[in-house]
Amino acid sequence: MALIILQQIVIMSLYMLCGYWLYKTGKITEEGSKSIANLLPWAVIPSTLINSFLIEYSGERMKLLMISFGMAALTLLIAAVLGFVFFRNSGIECFAATFSNAGFIGIPLVQASIGSEGVFYLSGILILFNLLQWTYGIWLLLRRRDGKSGNVPNPSLKSIILSPIVLSALAGILLFVTNTGAKLPPVFTSFIGGLVHLNAPLAMIVLGIYLARTKIGALFTTKRLYLVSTVRLLVIPLVTVLVFMLFPVSTPIRMTMLIAGAAPVGANVAVYSQLYDTDYGYACQTVTQSTLFSIVTMPVIIWIAERLF
What we know:
- The chain is mainly alpha-helical.
- About 80% of the residues lie in helices and about 0% in strands.
- The protein has one domain (about 1-309): Na+/H+ antiporter like fold (Up-down Bundle).
- The protein has helices at about 1-25, 30-50, 60-85, 90-100, 100-115, 115-145, 155-160, 165-175, 185-195, 200-210, 215-220, 225-245, 250-260, 270-275, 280-309.
């Protein structure tokens, strides 16, 4: 599996370079990049989640889904605790360490290495990610804004539930438990499948644009960035591997959660930093540096886990 992850990361890195080139040469503008980015949470990722539930219902699969939710909660708990231990005085750094790029990067890697079964298990962590980012994550940013003001209201429970990723995951679960997902007409499943194939290219092109908008020199001269990347890419995944060894859970579920937990900093730290008037530039740097370093760290983490699991 480590080799599959490595191959997929190389492919995704090429997509990222494509995004970098398109932005640097003016083929994609800043406004255009925002429009492309909106396709992911509003169309592509929801379609990928729904697609993973278009299978026949069984009691065994329902049991595995519940187990995956439990392991997802454990994965997030480990990241949240370690993130707070290392970065309690920095909202951006704590957010960056806690929330990985489980959607943009996690889904394509899980799809490539484990298949739709893995995305099925991944739905739990994506739901929890959205719930916690809109609550705990924003609390982290607001408590350390250094007196800056903003007029963006705190998110309501309604806005969290109605977010496209949570809605699509809930819709997928409904299709699964009613056994409707396995009986949908081919036209619909082909439509969903077409959007699913856009996930990896679009996600990495967007990250390539983030990279193009970042001062490259700052990525390698800011000492705190190295600490954030180390905690996000090495400390949290390695502790997760050790904790997972205590639970007699199937390997596909453990590997799915580990891929999500070992992914680089999630792009939402930059999105929410801009929205809530914090250091947007530094937030972008945490995303881009960790994404670059993950090309090396993720295959290594997966290789270690394969031998320990």
